[in-house]
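Listing S7. Sequence submitted for prediction.
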Amino acid sequence: MPTMASITVKKADETTNIVYDALTASGGETSPAVWRQDTGAAAGLPVGLRATLSLSTKWNGAKTARQGSFKYERPYATQNSTTTLFSESSRVVISGLATMPIGMPASEISEGVRQACNLLASTLIKQALETGYSPA
């Protein structure tokens, strides 16, 4: 089982690092681990309007595979110039479910998980999700 830690990723410019701080470690089966962007420009936002990632894991119904469920949320916050209060006008939400059968060799599970994550991080997939259209 991995140890909870902060995660550093690249911002959209593919150069600048951004840190998602370890907020809450998983308390056990189905209890999510949670990270939140608390530094940089996000530090000036109320905590409820900062980007978060949650990840929880559990057995599938037949207990033949482990499943990981993740959800990323990035609110778009605006500040009222009169009251100086922040409010959310919309948010990006990306979620998914990964299923890893327990009967497969660990090397094959690792290869599948890493290739899938790398595909999601590819420029083409990023562009499709940014525009909201599949490649044509």
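Caption to Listing S7: primary sequence and predicted structure tokens for the chain studied. Helices lie at 106-120, 123-131. The first helix runs from residue 106 to 120.
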